[in-house]
User: Fold this.
Amino acid sequence: MRHLLATRNLSYDNAMAILDTAQEMATVSARSIKKLPTLRGQTVVNLFFEDSTRTRTSFEAAAKRLSADVLNFAVKTSSVSKGESLKDTVQTLEAIGGDAIVMRHWASGAAQQLANFGWSSSAVINAGDGTHEHPTQALLDAFTLRHRLHGLQASGKDLNGLHVVIVGDILHSRVARSNVWLLHTLGAKVTLSGPPTLMPVGVTTWPVEINYDLDALLTQQPDAIMMLRVQAERMSGDFFPSAAEYTRGWGLTNDRYKTIEGAGTLIMHPGPMNRGLEISAAAADSAQNTALEQVANGVSVRMAVLYLLLAGQPGQ
Amino acid sequence: MVQEPVRKARTVMSESDIHRVLTRIAHEILEANRGVEHLMLLGIPRRGVPLANRLAEKLAEIEPEYVVLERTGQLDITLYRDDLARAESRIPATTIIPPAGIDNAVVVLVDDVLYSGRTIRAALDALADIGRPRTVRLAVLVDRGHRQLPLRADYVGKNLPTASSERVMVQLAEIDGGDDDYTSDQVQIVDVMH
Amino acid sequence: MTITYLITGGTTPDGVQTDIAIDSDGVIAELGQNLRAEESVVIDATNKIVLPGLVDLHTHLREPGNNDAETVESGTRAAAKGGFTAVHAMANSNPVADTAGVVEQVFSLGKQAGWTDVHPVGAVTVGLAGERLAELSAMHDSAANVTMFSDDGICVWDPVLMRRALEYVKSFDGFIAQHAQEPRLTEGAQMNESALSSELGLTGWPAVAEESIIARDVLLAQHVDSRVHICHVSTAGSVELIRWAKSQGINVTAEVTPHHLLLTEDYVKTYDPVYKVNPPLRKDSDVLALRRGLADGTIDTVGTDHAPHTEETKQCEWVVAAMGMTGLETALPVIQHTMVDTGLIGWHDVARVMSANPSRIYRHTDQGQLTDTGGLVQGAVANIAVYDPSHKFVVNPTEHDSKSANSPYKNMELSGQVTDVFYRGHQVVADARVTTPFQHSR
Assistant:
């Protein structure tokens, strides 16, 4: 692995290597000295073209626990007001000297462009690009699932046979895309649910099942239900008539939560949650909700990715 | 096709040799420590782990108050290596520290081959991040020389003068038992000629 | 009158090997075997194809307004090198070619350059804004004598405005070239809408956005009995609609670009904006339908949609990158590769779709003349391209005469080279290099 750009083409072996490494990183996070000398002298650049305090902080914690130096570089531009170009920004950073670039960008494909167009010699980690992918989020979700199921015995185990339901705005969700590919690679069965207007064209060619009836899905007691965040701007795009109608159809309401309460179904959310819209307060605060574990596991998974990309010579 | 280098292997320790020196080392440890108080064995993956377990069993045979499960663990040093940039990154192995922790313990690090000393240097760093042992000792099955750091082992199964072009191969049932070319536990010197 | 050039041994589109004599008036003086002419320049065209000069109904020359990307001079030089003797400059310059003044400026720059004919395309609506008609008659009555109008780059979306435009140009036998793109269905569109666009997280440009406008416009053309030309047809469904319209006797003509005949959406996987174009690259099945449509006459002509862009507008994030690719200098090799080498059409058809048909659509009388059997015409203006179909090469955009290097064929191996071009009887390309421009008399 030279870069981590997407889960679409992440091999089973590499995915398992990241999860197994993350497992060891998690034990480091649990001890009193939460630091390893592994990446001493290396520099990780957090290049964020889009605000995300959560993701940036998680990567920063991961890099620091591995003793890397961290540079945070926030670029305030949007697709509307084009400022400094990606190429110029990256070449400026190259001159400062970084070993890895962790990039969040509003443009789909920006991470792949950065890795492949000869603009930079750094390892590139995609921290979310447009509506394309967010691979470390999917990895931490997979890690969380695996950890809940297998605990300390999780190492070496994949997600074979699990049933995961992803609910909501699949069309605009990079988290959903990365999860679909990774869960499939790891052997899980994935079902997508949500308003048909928020299902991408051609989704039937994906390795998933589609079921618009969330209640019917919940009776199957899936191993996990992943609630995607509803973006406020989707409501103005006529994707669904009203927030109330969305919640009635695809929110994890109290009534729906009661049907899985106490069952094995985990409730996952990439955060931040819109309580009362896609998830009710009771569901959000239940022990079945893994949101906080997901945050903690995010650091371990990102440590694993940084370690695997930076600690050794790139191999094939 | 990559031509496999011609290998000439000679066995320098047999299964019974290994068995014998581990028994001796167990006695040496007990003698030096004046018993099993505070004693904890930590094997360094991969082959230091089964060696530590075997030593622990022997200690328990001699001194029943040594409870193997409470006094034996493993210490992975992958993330503390100083040669990470030279090889493809490896998935770290698990570190298992017995519940009592290493603070104030007499930790005996166990590894199969002592060579440059860099693994042990990394292990000392790793230990320091976990706690503060009273004493740290080192037990190895083979010391093949060529030290690059000022370190020495406290307990040595066999001193084995080697050339740096040679490789020392240790086969142990717990790790290598599933391999096709495994016949019995042994230590071999392999001369790699290109 | 003297013979200035003698092209010997070449094969004209009718398959006949013939010599061609060009006289000092810039006219094809004689066709036949073993022609002789003392003191004329002799061009050996043995094993080469001699085509009527190519005519492109769809060219962006970027002047006025974006001279960094292209100028009339550089764009027509590139066109000459590609075998073209006439190009039609789209109206989306800055200022927009929506007045007699701007079209006359472009027309005049074309004459000054002297590499090919330059016919400015007038904007249909003022400022391409789609709100009210530009002064179409004034542009027609200007020195540029515009008969083709297009808001290319933007669809004339308002159905009433489109109807009025179609009606209005009937007074001088003009026509409207429609960029068929339903705007609401393509807001923020980045690539063909498909499973791939979903995977790549790029907003889709659905085929229906093109097809619904084509369906509407052929019906409008039928209703008001006018002529509509569909620019850069890109989907299999569009081909079907045009085939149906033609079967109904509707006066519709259609064009396809070389890139839509060769490239598919799969290239977008690279996120390299050199493959970003409007309409977008589609699927294999679309490419095959377009090839069949061009072969069976449903699609009348190849238009390059040569769209030069500066490096900074292409070396950036896909979603903000400019749309378009260069095409003048690679058009003929791509048509050979996709249509001739595949056995779909012969050289007579190439001469039709790249020269005779676009000339007929525009009503040119001094371009694209061809006999019924595909021969060159004695007495016609000597607009001629000599083409060596066996020459193999790797596309290197930095060697192009266009000022821009956004060729999607970069590093692709193709066959075919335009070796010699005669524009109005003057040799503007010799040995695949531009020579000197034609001097228009004032």
Summary: The mean pLDDT of chain C is 97.
